[in-house]
Amino acid sequence: MSIKNISSEKENIKNYQNTCSEFIKDLSLDYLNWVDRYNLTPEETNMRKQKINNIVIKSSHIIYRFGDTIKKIDIIMNDGISKMAEFTAGYPFQFSILVNNLASYTYSPRGEIRLNIKAIPNDGKRVRIGSYDKNNLILLNSSSPVNYSFNKSSLESADILDDYIIIDAKNCLNKDIISATVIVEEINDDIVFEKRGLSTLVLVIQNYL
Q1: pTM of the model
Q2: Of 52, 99, 195, 199, which cross-links 181 as Cys (Cβ 3.0–4.6 Å)?
């Protein structure tokens, strides 16, 4: 590739970084307005809005620092959009996903990435991992090929959920980006009462930071 082509590619990446960063910022205004429409308590309204504003800042930072390809930028942007939608809706039950004891934005060496999914339902209800759609248990986007595995017992309801989905990232490269969205359902008498998604962005590294 010639120096001219390399320079042009870098300029295209820079422009796309700017475009996607601005898009997330502009879209956040819609989500902030939706929060107001819910007529929540002032405390809950402020909490959700702060989460959305933090996502804008964090996603933009990651786009500029690690979004060195169009594909990576798209993954980071779409992860940010998912996160804004998730926190706009809020969580009626306790739900978290940890990778290396970090939530939402985390890192892991290539190999097996363990998504630790934790959820606690409201009194009298149970929780389980649900399917993202009819063909996929989770929504998984990555800048390099990845697969995932899980135990079928993970789909059974429990009083408290503390389980794992394993992402096979052995084919990933340093600074690859992975976004995973997991659905958890709160059920009552085998009927889904509430369900929510939670997205996690993982930076693949050669060694621990």
Answers
A1: 0.91
A2: 199
